[in-house]
């Protein structure tokens, strides 16, 4: 059994209090690791280390920063199995999911390295007497708070772009996935990142999060997590007038119109709804189908879902692994029971063994049921029948969230009507809800968050824009 320490100022250290906490394997329910349980004193140490390192790192040429990032990407590629093991045994990810996550992360680090060399300013040619331009400077010290569901790639969105743009970072991974956060620290240490540029603290989110955000040395906060957590973080940051990005929850629709290829629509839906047992912010859980095909679509989807392989995430054949915790199983089951109790039709699933929740499909859900509006974050989706694309749009937008949406139709006019009308940060036509590209803006609107991650969008968030002018001739003054 390994005991993991935190990374602060280039040193691997215990929590100041000496406390540790248990990190559980969600499939076996057994202890996976013991991890340092940091508190406000450790947040203070980490912020001090990041703050001390910030000037030198900001003054490091972008090419030198990129070399370290590219080295980290290479090391991640060659340590693929080591990272996969943690993602499977600590996070409950299936082999397919974790390999996809690692590949995506390698690409993201390389993209951030390149983007760090393209921090662009503008020149304005309005006043011939001056050179007028914008310059971008690093924010300073970034606090990065990540969730457990895609703990590697979602930490790296923040860490890699912060480093690439000349910021220093304190990463606080989720309590369910601390080891992957610490492995990120180790990865960048091996890649030659100077001490203090990346610090990783582990422990309770509420204690560490508040201490990090409140710290005057923190200049930017980037969090991915639940909407309720994001709201708290935003309030905390706003009290100190600190900028932030919030990547939060979702209640994502797929709209399947009557002209769709049913087989393709069924497969796209199953992938979007059940990948990583529905524990993805972009998971599709509202399947909005036009009436003429709803019967055929429902029958085909229920048939596919009933046979999705559930079990040990380390077996390459498994598609549905364990849900992260017993609490999460209870929440999922509560949503399903509440819906069925209020008249929903259970088409398949609805049972569980340990943390293995059977992929579940419901129909006839109504706004009176919890599942209609609340994020379930489990392998559960519901079919909603609509009469046309206008009703589909109204149903899809009837949510406080706005993260991702899929539209399956061959009709270009209807695709554009929905693509433009859907209140979501990301809309994919002729695809499901799950997609990410290191260069493209990732994020949502409404209760799904504020700001975007990826490519130049991260560069803009992680840097402060300044208007800089130089008079070419003396300015005309009234005296
Ligand atoms: P969570 O909100 O419980 O935790 C997220 C992070 O916030 C963790 O590191 C946690 O320790 C920390 N935290 C908790 N309380 C805090 C506080 N008071 N102050 C500061 N930090 C605090 O979320 P989770 O359960 O880890 O992740 C699942 C949620 O994340 C889902 O709602 C999912 O939709 C969302 N998510 C969103 C995206 C996105 O990009 N929009 C991606 C993945 C997950």
Short description:
With 479 residues, the chain is an alpha/beta fold.
Commentary on this structure:
This protein is an alpha/beta fold. It has 2 domains: 3-248 and 444-467, Aldehyde Dehydrogenase, Chain A, domain 1, CATH 3.40.605; 252-429, Aldehyde Dehydrogenase, Chain A, domain 2 (3-Layer(aba) Sandwich). It is built from 15 helices and 23 strands. The strands form 6 sheets. The chain has a 7-stranded mixed beta sheet, sandwiched between helices. Helix 3 packs across helix 4. It is globular, with a radius of gyration of 23 Å. 53% of the residues are buried. Bound molecules: nicotinamide-adenine-dinucleotide. Nicotinamide-adenine-dinucleotide binds at residues 145-150, 154, 172-175, 205-206, 209-210, 223-226, 229, 232-233, 247-250, 281, 375, 377, 403, 444, 448-449.
Mean pLDDT equals: 98
Bound molecules: nicotinamide-adenine-dinucleotide
- Helical element count? 15
CATH superfamily of the largest domain: Aldehyde Dehydrogenase, Chain A, domain 1
Helical content class: 40-55%
Topology (SSEs and partners):
Blueprint: E1 3-4, E2 6-8, E3 11-13, E4 20-24, E5 31-36, H1 40-58, H2 62-78, H3 80-89, H4 95-115, E6 123-124, E7 130-138, E8 141-145, H5 151-164, E9 168-172, H6 178-190, E10 198-200, H7 205-214, E11 220-224, H8 227-239, E12 244-247, E13 252-256, H9 262-274, E14 284-290, H10 291-306, H11 326-341, E15 345-348, E16 352-353, E17 356-357, E18 360-363, H12 370-373, E19 380-386, H13 389-397, E20 404-408, H14 412-421, E21 426-429, E22 449-450, H15 455-462, E23 463-471
Parallel strand pairs: 1-5, 8-9, 8-11, 9-10, 11-12, 13-14, 13-20, 14-19, 18-19, 20-21
Antiparallel strand pairs: 2-3, 4-5, 6-7, 7-23, 12-22, 15-18, 16-17
The protein binds nicotinamide-adenine-dinucleotide.
């Amino acid at each position: 059994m390994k005991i993991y320490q935190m990374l602060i100022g280039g040193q691997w250290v215990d929590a100041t209090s000496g406390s540790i906490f248990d990190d559980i394997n969600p499939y076996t329910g057994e202890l996976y690791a013991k991890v340092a349980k940091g508190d406000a004193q450790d947040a203070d140490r980490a912020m001090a280390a990041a703050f001390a390192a910030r000037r030198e790192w900001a003054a490091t040429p972008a090419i030198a920063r990129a070399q370290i990032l590219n080295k980290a990407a290479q090391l991640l590629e060659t340590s693929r199995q080591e990272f996969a093991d943690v993602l499977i045994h600590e996070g409950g990810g299936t082999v397919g999911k974790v390999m996809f996550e690692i590949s995506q992360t390698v690409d993201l680090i390389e993209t951030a390295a390149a983007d760090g060399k393209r921090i662009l300013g503008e020149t304005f040619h309005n006043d011939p007497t001056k050179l007028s331009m914008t310059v971008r400077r690093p924010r300073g010290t970034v606090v990065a708070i990540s969730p457990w569901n895609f703990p590697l790639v979602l930490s790296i969105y923040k860490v890699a772009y912060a480093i690439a743009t000349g910021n220093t970072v304190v990463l606080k991974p989720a309590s369910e996935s601390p080891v992957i956060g610490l492995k990120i620290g180790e990865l960048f240490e091996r890649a030659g990142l100077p001490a203090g540029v990346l610090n990783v603290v582990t422990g309770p989110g509420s204690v560490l999060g508040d201490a990090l955000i409140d710290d005057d040395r923190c200049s930017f906060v980037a969090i991915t997590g639940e909407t309720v957590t994001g709201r708290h973080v935003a309030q905390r940051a706003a009290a100190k007038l600190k900028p932030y990005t919030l990547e939060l929850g979702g209640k994502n629709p797929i709209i399947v119109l009557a002209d769709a290829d049913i087989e393709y629509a069924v497969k796209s839906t199953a992938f979007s709804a059940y990948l990583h047992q529905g524990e993805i912010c972009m998971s599709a859980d509202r399947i909005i189908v036009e009436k003429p095909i709803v019967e055929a679509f429902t029958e085909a989807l229920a048939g596919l879902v009933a046979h999705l392989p559930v079990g040990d995430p380390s077996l390459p054949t498994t598609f549905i692994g364990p849900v992260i915790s017993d609490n999460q199983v209870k929440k999922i089951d509560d949503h399903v029971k509440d819906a069925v109790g209020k008249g929903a039709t259970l088409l398949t699933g609805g049972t569980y063994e340990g943390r293995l929740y059977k992929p579940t499909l419901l129909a006839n859900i109504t706004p009176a049921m919890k599942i209609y509006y609340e994020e379930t974050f489990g392998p559960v989706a519901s079919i909603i029948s609509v009469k046309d694309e206008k009703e589909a749009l109204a149903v899809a937008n009837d949510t406080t969230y706005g993260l991702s949406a899929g539209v399956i139709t061959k009709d270009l006019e209807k695709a554009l009507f929905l693509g433009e009308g859907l209140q979501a940060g990301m809309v994919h036509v002729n695809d499901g809800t799950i997609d990410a590209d290191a260069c493209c803006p990732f994020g949502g609107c409404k209760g799904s968050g504020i700001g975007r991650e990826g490519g130049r969008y991260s560069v803009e968030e992680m840097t402060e824009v300044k208007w800089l002018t130089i008079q070419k001739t003396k300015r005309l003054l009234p005296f």
